Fold this protein.
Amino acid sequence: MTAPQFSQALDPFLPKGTSSKIFEYLKDEKVRFKITRERKTKFGDFRAVPNQAFQTITINGNLNIYAFLITFIHEIAHLKVFKSYKQRVAPHGKEWKVKFQELMSPFLTEEVFPKEILSPLKNYMLNPKAASSSDHNLFKALMSFNEGENPITVLDIKEGERFNYRGKIFEKGKKRRTRYICYLLPTKKPFLFSGLAPVEVIKS
């Protein structure tokens, strides 16, 4: 794919003027890129297949342009680290953090991101985690640029609060790595929830 073709395909999903830089990151890589339907538990994905000529990056097509850019760079960092180390390092270890920081650095300007996102994004990039949703301030800033009303998510409610999810009542528990333990009531059976899961708070 040429640079003009790449820009024509990706410009609608990215902040103005950023597609050319991303093309530079990818032009020498053997990678397939797919825009997918919404996935509730993740924004994007990189699948490492050691014996495969082309690797695959997927991004949710419903993301706003700022979340799309951050997710895209997140996955490109995985691609670059896999190319250098294969599967000899942790998926979100120091090698990935350094590469993600390096690739994101040119975009951390007010020409690319609104101030409301740029401040929490810079803070998040000091020590990036596996998911941008793990940083509540950044997640809420990104979601504020979505079209329409933003739903309440598991991230928004406090530990011990109860919520309705798909017709069942749960109580929010502690965070375990990237997910939250929530207890189905009245049995107290534990379930793991993404912080992105939309819920309805039950007022006491």
